[in-house]
């Protein structure tokens, strides 16, 4: 894009940006969370959510209310908003939206393949799929037996197709291979998204690149953590790391050699950004998990994205914040329904 | 609010016709005419009916009424002058009767409840269970409503008064609703499943009847290699290579994707042919007609078959059995058609039953909806009450007009009589500022609206609305002065006023129309005043009218000064000299002399007149505003402000700008015709007044002018420090003397004023002094900070003194806008009508051409001069009221009394 994009940003995207900022203002406040935590039953949660911008989104649900119903309805609501944005968007924002949906599509594809592997019916799994990542050919993934099959028959026309470049293999799809496939897909997806934002330049790049770098590094850490004690070889592990993060290249090489959490922590110590995060992680009992710390950092970055104007990052940030909010509500609702109140306060506050 | 006042005024109209009557007749007449709000107005629709709101406002015909009613009348007057007395009341509602009491209050709309449980969250309140039940019920209602809407029917609005049902009825309504909903769900479910079946059958028929006969023909599209097996007749030597078929239907939007996926997944081991159905089929879920794509896939081999089935599954295709032979297909088709025919009959039966159920819903639902809405509102109000220690009664607090207290008491007694224990209401003292209540009728509402749009008045503050009724249309008219335009506006408003009771007019939904309609009385007065100012300016569509004979005589001038033919030929412009006797006969009786419209110096004459007029109007208007402040100070008991603020302000304003007005009027009264060259200039005089100087070329207007001027300026300047320091020092002194008396001495009288006589003390409590001292909460307790008060007063002083100058200048917009209006209409006339009228001497040509020309003139007059200019004049009149007039006395920091009422539930 040309320099000084702010001069004509509003011509194409001003309406949507205004809209998304309005939506962001409707996120639950600290006070709302305090009230939610005090609820005794899910009905109370529903009543309280009615006073917020969620409105009576649960009005048509038949009793009894369950957490999964709340979750589904919240997802539907987010999806409606997102679809509205997407339907009103112009290029290159619509491409940006497509990139955003890709991660959900990858998750859905993997979910369906896993389901097929465990001989579950497609309908059962479809309910679990994220509505943002829906596409027509999705249900047909179970006819494929190898990744290249999958690519050639099913996914060649979807936006996911370009990410398959690196993972065409004739391996049969067993559980490990599916997991590898997911990570490889994700890797190339992140790299492509990063490249897109970088090429777009301007404020969008300034906002989105750090977010995506963080996302890439987080994946690298999580992959490392999850691969301890599995048969995944270190070389294989390294091929899964997305290379668009701050850890690339030295950090990733060190991570690939890590053998336990302490070694991982030592790698993170080399990076000013990640050192405090790892320091915040509690040791086993109590304290925060690494996941929570990463979530908090993500929320922080997404909230900061709203401080700049004339960029696409707000849409990404809003979706992520809304997702975090949904996770929080689900967490609180789960705690309430399972009468497990001691942990109810460990949701991730959205600043 | 409007209704009672309206009825009263009708009574008044009836009463005023007989000149005198026996008192008994007076009493009986109102009772008879009271319900005549609608029927009575038909008889009385006349000028009296139009004026009746005005009459009631002005309190005319007061003397005709018996004494009790006069009192009420005065109350109304007072309530327009300043907001009514509103008191905080505490209601003790016995638990058993609380519901009926509150529902009765909702019908009456008297009390604004205060939330006594603000710290309790919504789901921990006492009646949350009942609210939830109401909500459940509303959810069911919503379902029923949606079903009725889907059936293409509308719910009628409920008729008659529907009180909130007693709580025990809730169960009955709930049961019946649930039964209805269940019945409806069952029937709907049946209907839907039947429709789905029917849809399936139709699709099947379409697939069979589509005659995808040519698996062979379709093969032409593919390469020759595939054609070879196809050419083998089915059932031939290659039994194992038999061609199998999958037939079905798919939504058209997915067809292309399906076809591609099939091709990619099976690598051409199949032939698929897609076709659109000829007829549109109704979708069983949405009910919308749509076409479908039928397809026939022929393939070889079982594996491929499984794959195809999986793929078609994932595209949600309908798959039907497909016989291989033509005869089999025909037989199947016949069977399917037979089935669908039977199914249609069953479906018709179901739909008849469904419409019966819906008819019942239509009948029952609307009253229930209103009732349950009311019930929910009652419970929400009850949720704001606190529970007494003994759990025997609920305690509610709320604001209520003091005038309505007896009604409130009566209502509570009536509705709690069943319970045995009567509900009690009593006033309680309060330090919060009560809400503002100003009752309006259909006439005053729009004017009150203008004031409220700026800010709702502080409690018991002087209300500018009554004066706005006259000044607003007048200032508007000064800018809009034209008889023709004013008349058009007046007639438009009159039409709205005359048809205001017609339901079609009343219920019009158009927002722009509603704006005009709600301001119809405003428009009426604006039009009327514009006619008046139009006569003053002597302009009707920019043309002058000569009602009286002109005060100037050209004939006299011609005979006196011997205008010869040669002189006339040389001089295109001729001057009329008033010094020549017989030329100026005296002023025109009313408004501007029409001869000025012929004059070249018309504009400069009018400019001088309008500019001076604007200043006079402005200074008068502002002075009036300052004087209104007196009522505020007297009412709030702040006598010191009378002396230390209002007086200096008046002296400053009148000493400088009042003097200017005096100069203008004085000069108007002098006849300078004889010594026109040496006539004094007011502008120079006024400038010199501030400079304490004297210009020799400018003659004084009257003897001793300089001395008077100097005295006035010095007086005005002396007033500035008084205004600046007076109030703060006085407050400081009062505070000091109070604190010297000590807290012990202060306690009793504070008690007396603060608690026993709550109304007065509370009134005194919200004076701006306390606000200025930065302690609105508790005047006595908080620290008196001199610097803060000084700061506030300094701001006020600067604002007032500078404001006097800038506001006076601001009133010049009256001149500017009226000039603009006059010039625009002049231009329109000259450019359109005059050119049209001078078009041709021949009668025929002019007549034909004038039709479109007049049309253009009319359209432009309405669009530009009436609508556009009207809006701009309205805007400026609004500004003059809000900024220049109201800032002299009106703070507008109050909030409206919004009583608990069912008005929205009934709608």
Structural summary, described in words:
Chain A has 15 helices and no strands. Chain A is globular. Chain A is mainly alpha-helical and 351 residues long. The mean pLDDT of chain A is 85. The two termini of chain A are 32 Å apart. In chain A, helix 4 packs antiparallel against helix 15, helix 5 packs across helix 6 (122-128) and helix 14 packs across helix 15 (313-337). Chain A has one domain (7-336). With 907 residues, chain B is α+β, with helices and mostly antiparallel strands. Chain B is 62% helix and 6% strand. Chain B is built from 32 helices and eleven strands.
Task: Please tell me the total number of domains of chain A.
Answer: 1
Count of strand segments of chain B: 11
Order of helices and strands of chain A: HHHHHHHHHHHHHHH
Shape of chain B: extended
Average the pLDDT over all residues of chain B and give the rounded result.
78
What's the helical proportion of residues of chain B? 55-70%
Arithmetic mean pLDDT of chain A: 85
Oligomerization category of the chains in this entry: heterodimer
Q: Which protein chains make the most extensive interface, counting residues with beta carbons within 8 Å of the other chain's beta carbons? A: A-B, 23 and 19 residues
Q: Proportion of β residues of chain A?
A: under 5%
Any chance you could write out the topology, listing elements then pairs?
The complex is a heterodimer of chains A (351) and B (907).
Chain A: H1 6-25, H2 30-37, H3 42-50, H4 67-87, H5 93-117, H6 122-128, H7 147-154, H8 175-200, H9 202-227, H10 234-240, H11 250-257, H12 261-269, H13 275-280, H14 290-305, H15 313-337
Helix pairs in contact in A: 1-15, 4-15, 5-6, 5-8, 8-9, 9-14, 10-11, 14-15
Chain B: H1 2-16, H2 23-33, H3 39-44, H4 47-58, H5 67-81, E1 86-94, H6 98-108, E2 111-114, H7 128-150, H8 167-209, H9 215-218, H10 224-231, E3 244-250, H11 252-266, E4 270-276, E5 281-282, E6 289-290, E7 293-299, H12 302-314, E8 318-320, H13 326-382, E9 386-387, E10 393-401, H14 405-416, E11 424-427, H15 445-454, H16 465-479, H17 483-498, H18 503-506, H19 511-518, H20 520-537, H21 554-560, H22 565-570, H23 602-635, H24 639-669, H25 682-691, H26 705-756, H27 758-765, H28 768-772, H29 786-810, H30 813-837, H31 843-885, H32 903-906
Antiparallel strand pairs in B: 1-10, 1-11, 2-10, 3-7, 3-8, 4-7, 5-6, 9-10
Helix pairs in contact in B: 1-2, 1-4, 6-13, 6-14, 7-8, 7-13, 8-13, 11-12, 15-16, 16-20, 16-30, 16-31, 17-20, 23-24, 23-29, 23-30, 24-26, 24-29, 26-27, 26-29, 30-31
């Amino acid at each position: 894009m040309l320099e000084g994009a702010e001069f004509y940003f509003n011509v194409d995207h001003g309406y949507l940006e205004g809209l998304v900022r309005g939506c962001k203002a409707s996120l639950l406040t600290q006070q709302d969370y305090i009230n939610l935590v005090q609820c005794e039953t899910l009905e109370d949660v529903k009543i309280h959510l009615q006073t917020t911008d969620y409105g009576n989104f649960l009005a048509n649900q038949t009793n009894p209310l369950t957490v999964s119903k709340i979750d589904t309805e919240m997802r539907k609501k987010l999806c409606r908003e997102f679809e509205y944005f997407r339907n009103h968007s112009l290029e290159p924002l619509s491409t940006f939206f497509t990139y955003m949906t890709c991660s959900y599509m990858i998750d859905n594809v993997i979910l369906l393949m896993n389901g097929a592997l465990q001989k579950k019916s497609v309908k059962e799994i479809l309910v679990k799929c994220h509505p943002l990542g829906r596409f027509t050919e999705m249900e047909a993934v179970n006819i494929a037996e190898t990744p290249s099959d999958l690519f050639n028959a099913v996914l060649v026309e979807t936006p996911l197709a370009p990410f398959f470049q690196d993972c065409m293999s004739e391996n049969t799809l067993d559980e490990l291979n599916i997991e590898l496939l997911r990570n490889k897909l994700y890797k190339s997806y992140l790299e492509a998204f990063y490249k897109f934002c970088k090429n777009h330049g301007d404020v969008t790049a300034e906002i989105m690149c750090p977010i995506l770098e963080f996302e890439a590094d987080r994946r690298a850490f999580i992959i490392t953590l999850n691969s301890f004690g599995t048969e995944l070889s270190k070389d294989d592990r390294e091929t899964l790391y997305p290379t668009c993060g701050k850890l690339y290249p030295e950090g990733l090489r060190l991570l690939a050699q890590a053998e336990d959490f302490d070694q991982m922590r030592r790698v993170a110590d080399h990076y000013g950004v990640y050192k405090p995060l790892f320091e915040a992680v509690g040791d086993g009992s109590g304290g925060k998990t690494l996941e929570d710390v990463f979530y908090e950092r993500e929320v922080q970055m997404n909230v900061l994205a709203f401080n700049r104007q004339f960029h696409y990052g707000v849409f990404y940030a809003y979706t992520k914040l809304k997702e975090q909010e949904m996770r929080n509500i689900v967490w609180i609702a789960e705690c309430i329904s399972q009468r497990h109140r001691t942990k109810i306060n460990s949701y991730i506050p959205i600043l | 609010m409007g209704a009672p006042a309206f009825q009263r005024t009708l009574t008044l109209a009836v009463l005023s016709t007989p000149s005198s009557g026996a008192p008994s007749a007076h009493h009986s007449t109102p009772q008879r005419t009271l319900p005549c709000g609608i029927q009575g107005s038909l008889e009385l629709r006349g000028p009296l009916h139009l004026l009746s709101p005005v009459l009631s406002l002005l309190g005319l015909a007061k003397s005709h009424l018996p004494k009790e009613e006069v009192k009420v009348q005065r109350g109304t007057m007072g309530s327009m002058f300043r907001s009514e007395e509103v008191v905080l009341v505490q209601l003790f509602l016995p638990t058993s009767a609380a519901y009926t009491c509150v529902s009765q209050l909702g019908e009456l709309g008297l009390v604004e409840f205060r939330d006594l449980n603000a710290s309790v969250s919504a789901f921990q309140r006492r009646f949350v269970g009942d609210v939830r039940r109401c909500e459940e019920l509303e959810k069911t209602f919503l379902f029923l409503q949606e079903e009725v809407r889907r059936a293409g029917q509308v719910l009628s609005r409920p008729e008659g008064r529907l009180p909130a049902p007693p709580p025990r009825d809730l169960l009955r309504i709930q049961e019946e609703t649930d039964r209805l909903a269940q019945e409806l769900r069952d029937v709907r479910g049946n209907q839907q499943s039947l429709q789905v079946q029917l849809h399936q059958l139709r699709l099947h028929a379409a697939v069979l009847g589509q005659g995808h006969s040519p698996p062979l023909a379709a093969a032409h599209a593919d390469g020759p290699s595939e054609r070879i097996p196809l050419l083998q007749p089915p059932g031939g030597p290659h039994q194992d290579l038999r061609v199998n078929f999958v037939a079905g239907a798919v939504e058209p939007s997915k067809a292309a994707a399906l076809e591609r996926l099939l091709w990619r997944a099976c690598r051409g081991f199949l032939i698929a042919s897609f076709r659109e159905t000829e007829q549109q089929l109704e979708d069983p879920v949405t009910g919308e007609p749509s076409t479908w794509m039928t397809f026939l896939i022929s393939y070889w081999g079982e594996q491929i078959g499984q794959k195809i089935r999986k793929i078609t599954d994932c595209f949600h295709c309908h798959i039907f059995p497909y016989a291989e032979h033509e005869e089999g297909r025909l037989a199947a088709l016949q069977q399917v058609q037979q089935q669908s025919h039977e199914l249609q009959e069953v479906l018709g039966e179901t739909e008849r039953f469904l419409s019966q159920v819906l008819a019942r819903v239509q009948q029952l639902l609307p009253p229930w909806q209103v009732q349950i809405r009311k019930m929910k509102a009652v419970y929400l109000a009850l949720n704001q009450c606190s529970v007494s220690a003994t759990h025997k009664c609920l305690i509610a607090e709320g604001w209520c007009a003091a005038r309505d207290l007896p009604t409130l008491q009566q209502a509570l007694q009536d509705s709690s009589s069943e319970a045995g224990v009567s509900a009690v209401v009593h006033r309680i003292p309060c330090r919060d500022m009560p809400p503002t209540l100003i009752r309006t009728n259909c006439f005053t509402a729009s004017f009150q609206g203008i004031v409220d749009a700026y800010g709702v008045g502080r409690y018991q503050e002087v209300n500018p609305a009554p004066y706005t009724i006259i000044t607003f249309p007048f200032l508007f008219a000064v800018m809009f002065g034209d008889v023709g335009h004013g008349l058009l506006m007046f007639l438009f408003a009159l039409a709205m006023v005359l048809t205001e009771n017609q339901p079609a007019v009343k219920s019009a939904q158009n927002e722009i129309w509603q704006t005009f309609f709600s301001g119809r009385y405003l428009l009426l007065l604006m039009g009327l005043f514009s006619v008046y100012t139009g006569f003053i300016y002597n302009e009707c569509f920019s043309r002058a009218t000569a009602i009286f004979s002109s005060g100037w005589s050209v004939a006299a001038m011609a005979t006196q000064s011997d205008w010869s033919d040669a002189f006339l030929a040389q001089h295109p412009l001729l001057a009329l000299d008033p010094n020549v006797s017989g030329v100026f006969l005296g002023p025109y009786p009313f408004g501007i002399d029409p001869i000025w419209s012929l004059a070249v110096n018309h504009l400069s004459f009018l400019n001088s007149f309008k500019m001076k007029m604007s200043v006079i109007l402005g200074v008068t208007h502002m002075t009036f505003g300052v004087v209104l402040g007196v009522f505020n100070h007297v009412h709030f008991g702040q006598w010191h402000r009378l002396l230390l603020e209002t007086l200096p302000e008046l002296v400053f304003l009148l000493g400088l700008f009042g003097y200017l007005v005096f100069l203008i009027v004085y000069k108007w009264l002098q006849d300078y015709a004889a010594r026109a060259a040496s006539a004094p200039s007011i502008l120079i005089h006024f400038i010199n007044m501030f400079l304490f100087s004297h210009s020799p070329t400018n003659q004084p207007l009257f003897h001793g002018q300089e001395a008077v001027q100097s005295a006035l300026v010095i007086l005005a300047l002396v007033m500035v420090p008084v205004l600046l320091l007076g109030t703060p020092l006085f407050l400081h002194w009062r505070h000091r003397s109070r604190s010297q008396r000590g807290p012990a001495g202060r306690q009793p009288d504070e008690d007396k004023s603060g608690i026993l006589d709550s109304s007065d003390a509370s009134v005194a409590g919200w004076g701006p002094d306390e606000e200025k001292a930065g302690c609105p909460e508790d005047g006595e307790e908080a620290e008196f900070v001199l610097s803060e008060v000084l700061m506030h007063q300094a701001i006020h002083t600067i604002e007032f003194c500078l404001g006097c100058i800038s506001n006076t200048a601001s009133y010049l917009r009256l001149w500017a806008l009226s000039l603009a209006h006059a010039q625009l209409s002049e231009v329109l006339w000259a450019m359109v009508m005059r050119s049209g009228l001078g078009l041709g001497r021949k009668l025929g040509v002019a007549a034909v051409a004038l039709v479109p020309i007049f049309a253009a003139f009319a359209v432009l007059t309405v669009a530009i001069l009436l609508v556009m200019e009207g809006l701009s004049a309205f805007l400026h009149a609004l500004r003059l009221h809000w900024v220049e007039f109201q800032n002299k006395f009106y703070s507008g920091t109050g909030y409206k009394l919004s009583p608990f009422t069912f008005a929205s539930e009934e709608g």
